[in-house]
Design brief:
The chain is mainly alpha-helical. It is built from eight helices and no strands. The longest helix is centred in the middle third of the chain and has 28 residues, at about 125-155. It holds the Pfam family Peptidase_A24.
Length: about 230
């Protein structure tokens, strides 16, 4: 399977999935706007971003991912990344709001994503990609666990939710290539750093403020999935 060349995805497929993404995003928006994911002690103000960003983001992501993966693996790969995009948008919103990545979203996403990637490998015969995804997920999970332990010793806000999410990031990107995993990881820290510096410059926060890292992990992942990359392996 050649990952560096984009598939010839029919335009109608992209349009249909973008519209479907908008519809699914609207359903998700109605669930998120209730704030039902908040715990009893999470009573702060809602995120500043308008809630309409949810269906818009879902439509854009589903369209982009449909265009990116399209007929690869006999059309079996696209559903895996559409499902991941759904979870990513929900997690990004929740983490931006309450600085928490709910296990009720991250843990079920593991068997869902792994199962869909396995179906893609079954359709294409590319079992090396599945093994690479599993390895990338495990390695990234271990790396983030070490970072979380160090952060706990230093009194930082880097938590176990980010560790759980890291495994998903490794699965999603590792299936494409190890390059994608590296790019996703680098982009997450780069974007989070730029955001943190921007808050300080605009005097909207200080150096000791905790910021939600999950959204930047997910943005970095989606960048790595969509952008054409030369695979290392």
């Amino acid at each position: 399977m050649t990952w560096t060349a984009f598939p010839a995805t029919p335009w109608w497929f992209v349009v249909v999935l973008a519209l479907a993404g908008a519809a699914v995003g609207e359903v998700l928006r109605r669930r998120l706007v209730t704030g039902g994911y908040r715990l009893d002690d999470e009573t702060g103000p809602p995120p500043r971003a308008p809630i309409v960003v949810v269906p818009v983001a879902m439509a854009l992501l589903w369209g982009l991912l449909a265009w990116r993966f399209g007929p690869l693996s006999e059309w079996a790969l696209t559903p895996a990344y559409l499902g991941f995009a759904f979870v990513a948008v929900a997690l990004a919103w929740v983490d931006a709001d309450v600085h928490r990545l709910p296990r009720g979203l991250t843990r079920p996403a593991y068997p869902l994503l792994a199962g869909q990637l396995a179906l893609a490998s079954l359709a294409s015969g590319d079992w090396a990609a599945l093994r690479r995804a599993a390895l990338a997920g495990l390695v990234l999970w271990v790396i983030y666990l070490v970072l979380a332990v160090v952060a706990a010793l230093l009194g930082s806000g880097f938590g176990l939710g980010d560790v759980t999410l890291a495994g998903l990031v490794g699965l999603a990107t590792g299936y494409v290539s190890l390059t994608a995993t590296l790019v996703a990881s680098f982009a997450a820290f780069l974007l989070a750093g730029v955001y943190g510096v921007g808050r300080i410059v605009l005097r909207r926060g200080g150096r000791k403020d905790d910021i939600a890292f999950g959204p930047w992990m997910l943005v970095g992942t989606l960048i790595a999935l969509v952008v054409e990359l030369a695979p290392l392996l």
